[in-house]
Amino acid sequence: MTTLAITGAAGRMGQRLIAVARESKDLKVIAAIERAGSAAIDRDAGEVAGIGNIGLPISAEMTATPDVLIDFTAPVGMRHWMKACRDRKIAMVVGTTGLVKEDHDAIDEASAFIPILQAGNMSLGVTVMCKIVAEVARLLGDDYDVEVVEAHHRFKKDAPSGTAEMIANSILGGLNRKHENLVYGRHGGDVPRGPKDVGMHSLRLGDEVGLHTAYFAALGERLEITHKATNRDTFVHGALKAARWLKGQKPGRYTIRQMLGIE
């Protein structure tokens, strides 16, 4: 049995994590957490998630000590809960996006004390896509133009998505290029494509869960590799699989690729 704490318990991802974990015989949510002042505080986590009363009130504190904490909140929340996990020796799955260099440095530091699996996207399919696009980039080389386009719902705050960054970084690795080769959108009357550019573009569309396409184009042909998430449960199942796997790991920073054994 792997015991869990879910932060952002009243949010879209938090609700689905609680609901899906409830269906799993080897998982038990023992802490459902929301920010102080949230209207969900003291409400039953199961009722908020739409699965009925489960006898677990949502709290602003973590009184129980789970095996793993899963965080899909915001960078400021992730920083707070990572410190709590480090202090209490709790493993952590980080699915929060919008992280900056200082956050990744802090994750590196905390991973010396606890196991942490951080990913910009918890989908297993996206992880496989990242491996594929790196190999495609390596095989096609510099003669092909590369663009990455991502689309998400209108409420998403950060852009580009963490997933698009993962895909782009995989391509850069395959091409042996640097992050400076990324071009975030284009605007103006004189913005020709540079020979080593990797374009990055973000769309915000209604209730789109997640759509990512990597384009490789030459004169006369185009290869498109696309991943489409049709509902958030794909991320939920990935995060719960990560939590199960992380429970038995030593302190360190881990990836979905390592969990799948493809790195």
Can you describe this structure?
It is a single chain. The radius of gyration is 19 Å and the shape is elongated. The chain has 263 residues and is of the alpha/beta class. A six-stranded parallel beta sheet has the order 2-1-3-4-5-11, sandwiched between helices. A five-stranded mixed beta sheet has the order 7-8-6-9-10, covered by helices on one side. It has helices at 12-22, 45-49, 75-88, 101-110, 124-140, 162-175, 233-246, 256-260, and strands at 2-7, 27-33, 68-71, 91-94, 115-118, 145-152, 182-184, 198-204, 210-218, 221-229, 252-254. The mean pLDDT is 95. It has two domains: 2-118 and 232-260, Rossmann fold (3-Layer(aba) Sandwich); 124-229, 2-Layer Sandwich (Dihydrodipicolinate Reductase, domain 2). Strand 9 (210-218) and strand 10 (221-229) form a beta hairpin.
